[in-house]
UniProtKB/TrEMBL annotation:
It comes from the Eukaryota. This is EF-hand domain-containing protein. One of its GO terms (cellular component) is membrane. One of its GO terms (molecular function) is calcium:proton antiporter activity. Residues 239-274, 279-314, 369-404, 409-444 form the EF-hand domain. Gene3D superfamilies: EF-hand (1.10.238.10). GO terms for biological process: calcium ion transmembrane transport; intracellular calcium ion homeostasis. It comes from Erythranthe guttata (Yellow monkey flower). InterPro entries: CaH_exchang (IPR004713), EF-hand-dom_pair (IPR011992), EF_Hand_1_Ca_BS (IPR018247), EF_hand_dom (IPR002048), NaCa_Exmemb (IPR004837). The chain crosses the membrane at residues 12-34, 46-68, 80-107, 147-170, 177-196, 495-518, 530-551, 571-592, 599-619, 625-645. It is found in: Endomembrane system.
Length: 651
């Protein structure tokens, strides 16, 4: 029966085999998920993310259910399918009850009731009810999470359709009709969900961010090797406030003791966020929101210091140790120092040349950049009049400049200037980029004519950049994740081979383990006189959902709105695919193999839990701690429901 796998005839032997198979099943599911995630990271949102990646997420349950119904004769397969239904129902209910409740408890924060109730007139009745019983601690999610819950709720509609033959005691003929109708509706919903993500890829984007968020520091550490004995933390591991203050001074280019949006955006450009400029404004807005406590659209030094202290402490907490930041980023520091040394000498000479030539002064009488003059200069440099400055045109400008005592390679100078001014990264400089870049240069030159000691301490400046990068990576994960994607996501042929190999290995493992696992569950059921449904419902989902459970618990403990929201969205998305894909497989087996429909109670149990939790998550974005207790109680209650309805033959 088991081929190369062992078998047993005792209860404890069956238990041992189930544990072993679950352990192997966990690894198989992890390989499938890892392979799919690697491909998703390489390709990004698109056809793969909308279709194949979604199927991969629900693949283990669907495959085990399919194997249970295909690899046996009709009589045995009918009973084995019940075991597969137990796995399918157990996975969805486990995620929506125990895992969901645990995430609420571990992700809870203190939110004063007064701050929540101020907008109560704009809330729906369910949310107002939650707020009226608000104990002060709970979880808050974003609106997109509620939309995902809505879609999950809709996915349970086929469960309702299939109940009609039993509720109205219809004949076998009508039972088959409703099986076909439910199957068509389920498949239609599944395909519609795929097409929806092709044209509205926000779900894919959120899934991609969730997948990549927890590994940003690890990804970067793998790409750096040099060492140094210096550290950016004090001896007791506390943040170095002098370093944080110097970061503020470097970022505050106009010297007004505040950082506005343009300065924050410019600083992001300086630390190599160059390949994600389509989201640059979003990055700036999110960082401004995080630091700007008084909401005046500017960050003062106290706000900046407090925000950075928080980030550094979170970095230590999240990583479990104090990283020696210089040690891992030293190569970047050396490169950055060389670039800055070049630009420090080139920029003043370029500006001096431009203002002493026929172009005239680029400053107004009050010393601010003269925007019309800069635009005229742009037109003069743009020889081919295509409203873009190319590398060759920039090189022609460099040829006319007589550099001072330090000779510069013309090509290198032109390349560095292109890199500084080309915000979009398309190797062309448009008028807006030119005006912004030259204005920043002029402001920097005028402010730094009398440099302070800390401003010329380049080593400290570079250390500041390191602290800013690492702490920003840990907190502003959405923006820095794009940095990792553009710079560190491996898209080589070897990366493809590794991803596909993991995917194939996982699928093979799941395929080989599915039948012996089902038979072991059946054997234990007979030996212990326990329905196979309950064994599959309780034990098997622990293996297939262990990875997402561990990941979800680890993420919500960070207690960040975005991370928490993505975690709950991932739970709802997984249940959604279990409902659509798993139920489609179940109905296909029943129709094409001629099985009788004996799963009304089990499906009703999933329907009730999905309806209750889906409604709560759809109509509210706030979840007090007590909702976690309510959700967890649904797990044992669902088992009681199956037992009671089954014993009394109510369905």
């Amino acid at each position: 029966m088991y081929g190369f796998l062992p078998c047993s005839k005792s209860i404890w032997g069956h238990v041992f085999l189930i544990v072993v198979y679950e352990y192997l099943l966990f690894h198989g599911e992890s390989y499938v998920a890892a392979g799919g995630e690697r491909i998703f990271k390489i390709l990004g949102p698109g056809v793969f993310g909308a279709c194949a990646f979604q199927i991969i997420g629900a693949f283990p349950e669907a495959l085990i259910l399919l194997v249970s119904g295909l690899l046996n004769n009709k009589e045995v397969a009918q009973e084995c399918v019940l075991t597969g239904v137990g796995l399918l129902a157990g996975s969805s209910i486990l995620l929506l009850t125990l895992v969901w409740g645990t995430c609420v408890i571990l992700g809870s924060q203190h939110f004063p009731n007064s701050s929540q109730s101020s907008d109560s007139t704009n809330q729906n009745p369910i949310q107002n009810f939650f707020l009226s019983l608000w104990p002060g601690y709970g979880v808050v999610t974003d609106s997109w999470t509620g939309y995902t819950a809505w879609i999950m709720l809709i996915s349970a509609i086929p469960f309702t359709i299939i109940q009609f033959p039993v509720l109205f005691d219809l004949s076998y003929f009508w039972e088959r009709i409703f099986v076909v109708v439910a199957l068509l509706v389920s498949v239609t919903f599944l395909l519609s969900y795929f097409f929806y993500q092709l044209f509205q890829p926000w779900i894919q984007g959120r899934q991609l961010l969730y997948l990549k968020h927890g590994h940003l520091v690890v990804d970067i550490l793998k790409h750096v090797q040099n060492h140094t004995n210096e550290t950016l933390f004090s001896d007791d591991g506390a943040p170095d406030l002098s370093v944080i203050r110097r970061i503020f001074k470097v970022t505050d280019r106009d010297g007004d003791e505040t950082i506005d949006a343009s300065e924050l955006k410019g600083f992001l450009q300086e630390i190599k966020f160059r390949k994600m400029y389509s989201d640059k404004d979003k990055a700036t807005q999110d960082m401004m929101k995080e630091f700007d406590v008084d909401d005046n659209k500017k960050i003062n030094i106290n706000e900046f210091v407090k925000g950075m202290e928080k980030w550094v402490e979170e970095t230590k907490k999240d990583s479990g140790e104090t990283y020696r930041l210089d040690e891992v980023l030293r190569p970047w520091m050396e490169k950055k120092r060389e670039e800055r040394e070049i630009m420090k000498n080139i920029v003043p000479e370029i500006l001096e040349h431009l203002q002493s030539s026929t172009h005239g002064s680029l400053l107004t009488e009050d010393g601010t950049p003269d925007i019309p003059a800069i635009k005229r200069l742009f037109k003069d440099i743009d020889h081919d009049k295509d409203d873009l400055i190319s590398y060759s045109e920039l090189r022609d400008l460099m040829m006319d400049i007589k550099f001072g005592s330090i000779p510069h390679d013309i090509d290198e100078a032109a390349s560095k200037m292109m890199e500084e001014l080309d915000i979009s990264g398309d190797k062309l400089i448009n008028e807006d980029e030119f005006v912004t870049g030259l204005s920043n240069w002029l402001n920097a030159i005028s402010i730094n004519q009398t440099p302070k000691p800390e401003q010329i301490n380049e080593e400290s400046d570079y250390h500041n950049h390191f602290l800013f990068i690492i702490t920003t990576m840990q907190q502003n994960w959405e923006e820095t994740d794009k940095l990792v994607e553009s710079k560190f996501v491996d898209k080589s042929p070897f990366a493809w081979i590794k991803a596909i190999s993991l995917l194939v290995l996982g699928i093979v493992m799941l395929g080989l383990l599915a039948e012996p696992l089902i038979h072991s569950v059946q054997s234990l059921s007979k030996a212990a006189s326990i329905p196979s449904f309950f064994i599959a419902f309780i034990f098997v989902p622990l293996a297939t959902n262990a990875r997402i459970t561990i990941s979800a618990i680890g993420e919500v403990r960070r207690k960040k709105l975005n991370i928490t929201s993505l975690t709950f969205s991932e739970i709802y998305g997984t249940v959604l695919m279990n409902n659509l894909l798993g139920f489609s497989v179940l109905l296909s087996l029943i129709y094409f193999r001629g099985f009788s429909w004996d799963f009304s109670v089990e499906v009703l149990m999933v329907l009730i839990v999905c309806a209750v939790m889906g409604c709560l998550a759809s109509f509210s974005t706030v979840f007090p701690v007590w909702t976690a207790v309510f959700a967890c109680m649904l797990y044992p209650l669902s088992l009681v429901l199956v037992t009671v309805l089954g014993d009394f033959n109510w369905l």
